[in-house]
Amino acid sequence: MSRLNPRQQEAVQYISGPLLVLAGAGSGKTSVITRKIAYLVRDCGIQARHIVAVTFTNKAAREMKERVGLLLRGSEARGLTVSTFHNLGLNIIRKEHQRLGYKPGFSIFDQQDAKALISDLLQGEGDAELADSIQHCISNWKNDLILPEQAQLNARTPDQQLAATLYEHYQRTLKAYNAVDFDDLILIPVMLFRNHPDVLEKWQFRIRYMLVDEYQDTNTSQYLLVQMLVGQQARFTVVGDDDQSIYAWRGARPENLVQLKQDYPSLKVVMLEQNYRSTSRILRAANTLIANNPHVFEKQLWSELGYGDPIRVIRCRNEEAEAERVATDIQLQHLRHKRAWKDFAILYRGNHQSRLIEMKLQHHQVPYHISGGTSFFSRQEVKDIMAYLRLLVNPDDDNALLRVINVPRREIGPATLEKLSGFADQRQLSLFRACLENDIEQQLDARTSERLQRFGQWLEGIRQRCYGDEPMLALRDLVIDLDYENWLRQNCSSDEIAAKRMGNVWFLIDALKTSLEKAEEEDGNIEDAISRLVLRDMLDRQEEEEDVDRVQLMTLHASKGLEYPHVFIMGMEEEILPHRSSIEADSVEEERRLTYVGITRARQTLTFSLAARRRQFGEVIDCLPSRFLDELPQEDLEWEGRDDAPPEQKQARGREALADIRSLLKRHDD
Predict the structure, then answer these.
(1) What is the CATH number of the domain that holds 475?
(2) Identified catalytic residue from 113, 181, 183, 213
């Protein structure tokens, strides 16, 4: 406990009742959670298998596990659950699948699968936008624990009625496919516990203490899941920060922190206000800005890291000049002060803002990386092989079969699939099972039915081997039998691209091998390994390469939880930050929290940039500086470009900066 400050120590040692830890940015909350787990095991005699710690991302769960591993010796940590909310939900559904009416090896539909299913159910009526909108509605209903019948009763407009009717068909189809979607991973356990108190009691007995991180990001169903699992005993610690709640658009309810006080009158609140990340000047700016939002809990971040450099605000003539200025500024700091590229982060409100800065960084040969780029699992070749894997563990997944039946081509056209579908409906079979039926020949000509049966029997053979002694060998054979590499060559613009994409396929198989080894440690099998892989992708998509020396580009939302020595926040203008839609909806508070999150990513220096004019919809418009700049302590800001300096002075300033870079580059080359 020696390295904890008094507030952190209090949070770790309090176990007499429910506890809310209000942890400001950079205040060492992960240390509190990991130390508390060790304290519960070592000092309170609670076995690790009765402790559950829940967070929102795989990255946070991994970091937590690693840090607990350093505090507890081998056997002490055995059985400890550190997972995401959705992984916990998946675990509950897997263990209770019979009670829920699912077969083992159920599929998990990601956003793309769900959207494809909704489009199918719309039967060509409506466009991609309608499918998106209905998917969003269904997701919100599930997060708010509204089932199809209730959604239909509540529907007022024709659009709502269509979405509610489709919701019912969607759920029925998912069940027929032996599948669940991402939101079901929370909804299904909550409904199970609600309808079966005996099952809830069993899980409450299993979980003696619960810790929840990022509590301000929980939605209605997640709040209820925690409430049910902790029961009357209410032995829990939740950690959150109402000032960092930036996910209202996906159902997060920062008011859940306030709700806790009402639901648990004996709740103790501990504030963590000492920041171990930023200079005092940066924290003063953050505190002053966020004070403009109403608060139930008042807190002031402070630090012992010195007052620090002034916060720069650079106003440029247009968006191109802004991007150029940020790129050259980073290049200059890198050369002049020998700062690593990866020490710089450029943050912005929306992804569309990255294009210009990318071009400028490329032009100046500054290496960069965009967080949240194309997900590994959303690549075509990976989705193909994943569909085969899903079909192996869940033969009822018609969606997966339709994706792969002609990958590679097997000359099975839409007319054949329609007849196969009719035959499967008659027999109440999945498409895959229908392929294995002998009398399918009565529905289709001999050549076509022979193709379908050959496909079905081949895949069934691989499926049987997956449950034998060498599942990984069976999966490698699947890829080889498919001659998938040749299929890629036929469909790629060059052999080089085909080889790269084939590399992704083998990377996936290796990832599955690792997942299978972990599943086997916990008496799992190939089904568990594939479920984990699908879920891991859905939660944090591709792992970012963090150790490469590159400037980091990301949205403000993506920056949450990260920190960098030098941070640039671009586009500090009205209608960008705060966003136009939030101004129109009079919901600027979340935009202010988003800016607060951006500011508190910075350790040593913080720079805001903005454009005086910007091209929009083909015309040039004047831009107003963001209201958030007015809300910062003005004496801590160092403005540039605010005054209309004479043109010759500006040109001289520009020439000096350019000469500076040239001389540094020359010295660098020498």
Answers:
(1) 1.10.486.10
(2) 213
